[in-house]
Amino acid sequence: MKLNFSLSLKLTVMVVLVSAIVIFSLTYINIEEQAISLENVYSDKAVTLSQALDTAIGDHDELTDKQKSQNYILNFSKLNSEILKVSINLPDEEGLKVFVSTDMDSINISSSQYNNFSYENDAVVNIPIHSGNSHTITVITPINLSGQIYGTYEMLLSMNASYTAFDVRARNLVMISVISLFILIFSFLYLLRKIIVKPVIVFRDAAKIIGEGNLDTKIKIKSQDELGELSNAFNKMTNDLKKSRNKIEEYNKILENLLDRKDEFIGQLGHDLKNPLQPLVGLLPVIMEKEKDPKIKEHLNILIHNVEYMRDLIIKTLQLARLRSPDTKFDMENLNLMEEVDNVLTSQKLFLNENNINAKSMIDNNIFVEADKLRSVELFNNLITNAVKYTPEGGGELTINAKKGKDFVTISIKDTGIGMTEEQLSKVFDEFYKVDTSRCEMDSSGLGLSICKRIVEKHGGRIWVESPGKGKGTTFYFTLKSANEKINKNL
Amino acid sequence: MVKTIIIVDDDPGVRYTVKAGIEALDENYQIIPVENGMKCLEFLGNNQIPDLILLDVMMPEMTGWETYDRIKENEAWRKIPIVFLTARTDRIAKDAGDFLAEDYIEKPAKIPELKQRLDNILKK
After folding, report:
1. Is A217 left (phi over 0), alpha (psi -120 to 50) or beta?
2. Are A373 and A331 in contact (CB under 8 A)?
3. Which of A443, A422, A444 is nearest to A433 (CA)?
């Protein structure tokens, strides 16, 4: 259920973040706006109160009478419980100063707070202060005296009553937004499951079943949206896949049949070619032995050479066809690699000497491999013949070595012959491929290395070739399963 | 002393090659070509016992194996050495040939090499 979890989780986190940001921003803006409008209400109230005070004082000339002014504001401040402080600020030589105040203790603070106030400007100044549960606003209004600003009224109002009510409302607002956020998340999760996650699970399970090879699976999502379209496309894909698979299976059968027939044909052809070849192969050496005329002997030599080549081609083609056949069984036994290679080199001694090849085996006595004796001899013979064939007439060296790995023994056959280019290296195991068509056409069937590859692969090993380049020699490598000691399985 | 060898093969080319080739190399050999297993048994039935029989395996009507069995069933013929000469080179054929017969020679064979192997058997 990993898919279910992570898809929901990702989308939920995203939606929670977005909606939280939106809801809380809206809430914040709303509260801010209300707070500002509340301040405006108090500001208006203070202006109205100041105008009332101004009207009550009536004659501005009386303002300079400290005792009178003091009485005015003291009486005035008692009119409204929200009035915390009333001051009248008048100018002296230094500027605007508090002249009288209902709270003379805070004169200094008050004056220091507002001494920047320019009385030439007749604007109303609002200074709201919110600290903890205390919400106050200081409103300064100008006193106009015959068209000129003479001083200011300063009124400190408590907004606590309104703000307490406002706080409750704001708290409710936040609560409502949190609740609506949760409702949003849960309804989103529910819709997510119903609309996306469930169909996705249906698709996932269907894909799994199809992956296992059951192409009869159909998805039954009928919704008229993208998922419905996806479901249709999915079903069509499955159907197409089924058709393609059936076609491939059909072609496979045809191919298998053709391959069988090809091998059968090659087998039969090879067999039928052997009999008519018997008189040529059989009698030409007899004629050669009896013949005295050197000119005819030369002709015979060419005939024998070609007939031998044909014989080699037929035998190797048959061999390859047989190696490919699945019912070809190998007799696996544990072989001492050194002994086997020494035997091969001994049997090839004449051939190697004729071609001036100095062959040596560096294999240790304690390496054993699991292999079919006859086939491995054939493998070594083919690789040695190949190495000799591609070493110039002057002769060269041939080194056979073996390295024991964990499960496999890697055997190398290194020659000092004509070497190979990259292109040749890649094709050397292909059937009927010849490295040097001009030079070796008549000596090579082009099948020897294909046979080697077959033999090695039938043993569960791998064969490859390396060459530093043209003229620098070639090394063939192949692997055979490592065996621990010489225990013949047949015993 | 002249050695008599019967070559049993349905292919006239093979019969001719073996007869002409071996007789050309050595006058002391007499090769009797026979075209199938039945004819071979007929020949033996006339009390003409050869020194060796060269037997093809894949022949119509009676195979080389059957011919081999029929020869070995007869007390008087049992000791005649039999060599298979065949184009069949698969493992079962080779193992059976090696096991049953004196030798197993693959077609197409070079006559000098064939004669060498027959010489070795006849010397025993």
Report:
1. beta
2. yes
3. A444
Q: Are A356 and A319 in contact (CB under 8 A)?
A: no
Residue-level pLDDT at B3: 92
pLDDT in tens, A322-345: 787 776 778 888 999 999 999 999
CATH number assigned to the domain with residue range A2-167, chosen from the 4 options 3.30.450.20, 3.40.50.620, 3.40.50.2000, 3.30.420.150? 3.30.450.20
Query: By residue range, what is the domain housing residue B58?
Result: 3-123
Q: Which residue of A has its CA nearest to B20?
A: A283
Token code pair at residue A420: 């190979």
CATH architecture of A330-483: 2-Layer Sandwich (3.30)
Q: What is the pLDDT of residues A123-162, one digit of tens each?
A: 677 778 877 778 888 888 888 766 667 788 888 888 888 8
CATH number at residue B79: 3.40.50.2300
Tokens of A362: 């560096």
Q: Which two tokens stand for residue A208?
A: 């799994």
Q: Quick check: A348 pLDDT over 80? A: yes
Q: List pLDDT tens digits, range B5-51.
A: 999 999 898 999 999 999 998 999 999 999 999 999 999 998 889 99
So what's the pLDDT on residue A491?
Answer: 42
- Per domain, the residue ranges of chain A are 2-167, 215-328, 330-483
Domain count within chain B = 1
For tokens 């050695």, name the residue: B3
> How do residues A184-232 score in pLDDT, each as one tens digit?
888 888 888 888 888 888 888 888 888 888 888 888 887 888 888 888 8
Query: Are the CB atoms for B23 and A290 separated by under 8 Å?
Result: no
Where residue A132 falls (left for φ over 0; alpha for ψ -120 to 50; beta otherwise) is left
Is A410 a residue whose pLDDT tops 70? yes
Cβ(A347)–Cβ(A385) below 8 Å: no
**Record: contact A285-B14, CB cut-off 8 A:** no
Structure ipTM: 0.79
* pLDDT given for residue A118 in this prediction: 53
Tokens of B74: 């007869």
| DSSP tag of A94 | S
| Amino acid sitting at position A97 | K
Residue with tokens 């043209």: A470
| pLDDT of res. A295 | 92
- The answer to whether the CB of A318 falls within 8 A of the CB of B89 is yes
pLDDT band at A108 (very low <50, low <70, confident <90, very high): very low
A396 CB burial (10 A radius; 0-12, 13-18, 19+):
buried
Q: Sign of dihedral through CA atoms A353, A357, A362, A363?
A: negative
Q: What is the pTM of this model?
A: 0.51
Residue B6: closest CA among B28, B26, B35 = B35
List of chain A residues whose C-beta atoms are within 8 Å of the C-beta of residue B17: 278-279, 282-283
Tally C-beta pairs within 8 A across A and B: 61
Pick the residue of B27, B110, B115 with the most A CBs within 10 A to test the interface with A by mutation: B110
Residue of B nearest to A271 (CA): B87
